[in-house]
Amino acid sequence: QVQLVESGGGLVQAGGSLRLSCKASGNINTIIAIAWYRQAPGKQRDVVATITRGGSTTYADSVKGRFSISRDNFEDAVYLQMNDLKPEDTAVYYCSQYPNQGSWGQGTQVIVSS
After folding, report:
1. Which of 29, 60, 103, 110 is 20 to 30 A from 39, alpha carbon to alpha carbon?
2. What are phi and psi of 21, to 5 degrees?
3. Is the pLDDT of residue 14 over 90?
4. Cβ(69)–Cβ(78) under 8 Å?
């Protein structure tokens, strides 16, 4: 089974940008759809963006126009470009098969300071 590992989080000021990476341990084309999720302290884990094997994307209303999900089948990776970050984007970000099958990685922490 292909494992997904997140990276790229960090501390950034409001208005800044970060690019998260989700690297697959094998052929990412075996996964039909991949999503970025996030979980803020004390809140449930929510879907931020999804991308299918064919490149179709969806976004949560809260990130539309600011975040962009992309997929590189040659690099076996999915990326989340996050621009104009806001303090409410602070969360642990996870990538996973969509819908999630019950397995989560370590995630990557994003902290946006005001």
Report:
1. 29
2. -120, 145
3. yes
4. yes
Tokens at 18, concatenated? 């970060």
CA distances to 23, 67, 73, 91 from 79, in Å = 9, 10, 11, 17
* Average pLDDT over the chain, rounded to an integer: 96
CA pair distance 106, 69, nearest whole angstrom: 19
The mean pLDDT value for 40-49 works out to 96
Task: Encode burial over 51-88: b for 16+ CB neighbours within 10 A, e otherwise.
Answer: beeeeeeebeeebeeebbbebeeeebbbbbebeebeee
* Cα 37 from Cα 43, distance rounded (Å): 12
Q: Residues with Cβ < 8 Å from 105, sequence gap 6 or more?
A: 3, 4, 5, 6, 94, 95, 96
Identify which of 82, 54, 88 has the alpha carbon closest to the alpha carbon of residue 69.
Answer: 82
Q: Which of 50, 47, 79, 52 is nearest to 62 (CA)?
A: 47
Round to whole Å and give the CA distance between 69 and 84.
15
